[in-house]
Amino acid sequence: MELTHEEESILSGISFNGEQIKNGELDENDKALLTEMRAVGAYLKKKYPSYEFVITGCELKAGTAKDYNEWYYRAEGIERDSAFIATSLEMDGKLEIKDDFYGEVVRKDIQETIEGDLKQIGLPVVQVNIGFWEYLGKEYGEKISADEVLQGIIPAGNDIKIFLDGSVLSDAPYEEVVAKIKELLVRRKVIGDIYIVVLKDADSDFARDRLYSKSVTLD
Questions:
Q1: Distances (CA, A) of 106 to 64, 67, 132, 188
Q2: Distance between CA 21 and CA 129 in Å, rounded?
Q3: pLDDT tens-digit readout, 157-210
Q4: Contact partners, residue 118, CB within 8 Å, separation at least 6
Q5: Which terminus of the chain has a lower count of CB atoms within 10 Å, N or C?
Q6: Is a pLDDT exceeding 90 seen at residue 27?
Q7: Residues pairing with 73 in the sheet
Q8: Nearest C-alpha neighbor of 160 from the set 102, 214, 83, 82
Q9: Is this prediction's pTM over 0.85?
């Protein structure tokens, strides 16, 4: 069976039949994994046609508490410390695939929206980071709505971190600042876990130089 270099490398890493795979000799289990890997690649290409993806690895469900395989992949032109992940779950003889790349599509719009709102009410925002807890399927492609994600209409599991400049907030009670942010986000109908951090100043280390932090859940 003809394999690309990437396919051979990934299959050899997750199978006990490394030597046979190098010779193109796949057993039934390896063939099933290859079919699944190619299905994930085709899913990503169809869902996000403006991007190019390369699958880089896999964590099999065997030996874990998960009922799905995790396929690691990267997107051409996007640099980040960790790989993107797509999950594949076999249900009734069919493969259900979900991914986390939608977050890359909507992240910038959501960050700019929240940063702009905070600045409009006079808060010294240093940075807004947003992550997502959920994997979403093929129904949410490149045209996914950032507003619908932000408002929880699309259940992405929003995790929003807001960092503020404490040197500008020196005379402001932090609980009042939190209340002000919460009121703003509720008015915008934002859903998710909000983590508000006050730093010493705009150049502070995000982990070491914290004056105050508070978690808020909006649902």
A1: 31, 28, 11, 17
A2: 42
A3: 999 999 999 999 978 899 999 999 999 999 999 999 999 999 999 999 999 999
A4: 125, 128, 162, 181, 184
A5: C
A6: no
A7: 55, 84
A8: 214
A9: yes
